[in-house]
Write a structure and sequence with these properties.
about 270 residues, about 40% helix, alpha/beta, seven-stranded mixed beta sheet, DUF4422
Length: about 270
């Protein structure tokens, strides 16, 4: 029988997780509570946390804790974004009912699958004024985007918010097995599975992290770190990983979508 271990990655103390089964991975600069798992020791990329965000802990877990021989389910979420049980309460989730709605055990519906990714979000209902302000370079190249929401793809969204052309540059150094397919994926899809959240079997996780970090480290040679700043590009490597995850798990795993929620309780 397999178990479920979920790691919530955070740079802030999350008191309302104290009485849950969740493990907490720390990527903050301050000293965390003793039960939080540090990611600045052993084999790590902690010095890049500013640019890699929760991937800092993901890398540490992969290099130092992942047991590919295990049959357990291993999952990741992040501060403010959590997995829910399939039959979660339809009413507003609050501090009182949070724990009973939080996913913390293997579910019967997972039988036959080896990966779980969070429900997707649509990104093709962009306000016209925002397209003009942030997407004008794309609109000049293809004015049809302005009138046809099916053309407001992952690539268009990325170009608007995380540096025009950055996604295309990154794809050029992707491995040969994925490059052309991923390019087509971001140019034709108008939704993706966000937040670098997934639950999977260790063998799948090992392959995912192998492909992901091999690509991101190549991307460092293009973008570096010095010119990455602000919301748009400071966490560029996490934004790239987020889009790649949607493609990768759909190609390489037998996956099922699963509900999640945004929660920002005040401690």
């Amino acid at each position: 029988m397999s178990n479920l271990k979920i790691y919530c990655v955070t740079d802030k103390v999350i008191n309302f997780l104290d009485n849950t089964k969740y493990n907490i991975g720390w990527v903050g600069k301050e000293n965390p509570p003793e039960n939080y798992i540090l990611s600045n020791n052993r084999n790590n990329i902690f010095s890049k946390e500013k640019y890699y965000s929760e991937l800092t802990f993901h890398y540490w877990y992969w290099k130092n804790l992942l047991n590919v021989e295990s049959n357990d389910w291993i999952g990741f979420c992040q501060k403010r974004r959590y997995w829910l049980k399939k039959n979660f309460l339809k009413d507003k989730i609050d501090k009182v009912n949070f724990s009973e709605n939080l996913l913390d055990e293997v579910q019967d519906e997972w039988s036959g699958y080896n990966a779980i990714i969070c429900d997707s979000i649509k990104i093709n209902k962009v306000k016209k004024i925002k397209m003009i302000k942030r997407g004008f370079r794309s609109l000049i190249r293809n004015p049809k985007i302005f009138f046809n929401d099916k053309k407001q793809t992952i690539k268009f969204h990325f170009d608007m918010h995380h540096g025009y052309g950055n996604l295309s540059k990154a794809i050029e150094v992707m491995n040969d097995n994925d490059r052309d397919e991923f390019k087509n994926y971001v140019n034709t899809n108008c939704e993706y599975n966000p937040h670098i959240m997934f639950i999977a079997k260790p063998l799948i996780i090992n392959k995912w992290f192998t492909d992901l970090f091999e690509w991101l480290f190549k991307c460092e040679k293009i973008f570096g770190f010095e010119n990455l700043n602000g919301y748009d590009t400071q966490r560029l490597y996490a934004y790239l990983a987020e889009r790649y995850l949607s493609f990768w798990f759909k190609k390489y795993s037998n996956f099922i979508n699963w509900p999640w929620t945004f929660i920002d309780f005040k401690n």
